[in-house]
Amino acid sequence: MALPYTHHYDLSFSALNLKKFGSSHLQPICCLRCNSSVSSSPFTEKHSLQRYQRDQWVYNNNNQQRPSLSCDDEAASCSVPADSDSIRLNDITLQLPELRKLLQVLKHKRESCGGQVPKNGLGDVFLVGTGPGDPDLLTLKAVKVIQKADLLLYDRLVSNAVLDLVGPDARLLYVGKTAGYHSRTQEEIHELLLSFAEAGATVVRLKGGDPLVFGRGGEEMDFLQQQGIQVKVIPGITAASGISAELGIPLTHRGIANSVRFLTGHSRKGGTDPLFVAENAADPDSTLVVYMGLSTLPSLAEKLIHHGLPPDTPATAVERGTTPQQRMVFAELKDLADKIKTAELVSPTLIIIGKVVALSPFWPQSLTEASRLVEV
């Protein structure tokens, strides 16, 4: 099947010709932007219209049991609740009874149509990685599971283009989290997955990137398995791999970087101090990839330099990588935080630090820098 996704890049500098690396007129790159006619964000924002259109079946005040699970025509015309924050109040208590009724309808529908119902009455749960945003990066297995699911619980960083692949008879429920706003606690997500599986539904938990890389997928898997629910994991391309490939940055390179390390920029206590900062992280022969590190980057960069990483280490920050709204900033480590602030990058932004960044065709004077590194 053809996936509806096309990049249209508009580079904010004119001297770069990727087919002519020998040009001596390359200018330093501060920021690259991508123009697109689609919405301002490729992802589901906490109070976006798209979210309420997908989830309006949950907030419907009609308490009558629906005869089927086919898509509702009124979904496209639903309005955003006047007080969207109030929906969060007692959400789990209010919604679970209705969702259970809907899944009972599904079970009866299966039985009447001769569909297979699990012998033990329990459904399967799939933890599916959707990659960094581009639906073309989904695995074939992920697409098949997404299209056959009864109900899908999706995170904020599952792109709208991926959600467009969901089957017409499935239900979607947003459980995303962003700084300062969690639509569900992790414990509530656990209970939702368990309740749906106990009703015999095929439940898909959609996560951006890979479900077992900074996605708390391991916690959900452990909880469900302890309750006797079978969990299957379908890996996704983690942001580090997908975005670095998009920029032509090898995470490892013979003679330049012999290892790669994934870090979370989140602080253990929610402050400005990154969680993983130590002497062994400041290795000039390694590549560092920092997830969720916008707010803690100034402190991270300072400590990495303090522990011996050269201040002129090449680095890049990539907002909404692999999507039409992708923006990038390239700079030396000592200047990266200021460049990000000037460009006003927002979450999600991935940060890559290391000599391999200079191998990207987007790095200023990339040919000269790459030649020097290879010679060394």
UniProtKB/TrEMBL annotation:
Any one GO molecular-function label of the UniProt entry: uroporphyrin-III C-methyltransferase activity
Keyword Transferase: yes
Group of enzyme by EC: transferase
Domain Tetrapyrrole methylase: 125-337
Family annotation (Gene3D superfamilies): Cobalt-precorrin-4 Transmethylase, Domain 1 (3.40.1010.10), Methyltransferase, Cobalt-precorrin-4 Transmethylase, Domain 2 (3.30.950.10)
Keywords: Methyltransferase, Porphyrin biosynthesis, S-adenosyl-L-methionine, Transferase
Enzyme Commission identifier(s): 2.1.1.107
Entry-linked InterPro entries: 4pyrrol_Mease, 4pyrrol_Methylase_sf, 4pyrrole_Mease_sub1, 4pyrrole_Mease_sub2, CobA/CysG_C, Siro_Cobalamin_biosynth, Uropor_MeTrfase_CS
Keyword Zinc: no
Matching SUPFAM superfamilies: Tetrapyrrole methylase
Source organism superkingdom: Eukaryota
PROSITE patterns xrefs: SUMT_1, SUMT_2
NCBIfam families named among the record's database cross-references: cobA_cysG_Cterm (TIGR01469), PRK06136.1 (NF004790)
The protein, known as: uroporphyrinogen-III C-methyltransferase
Organism whose genome encodes this protein: Gossypium laxum
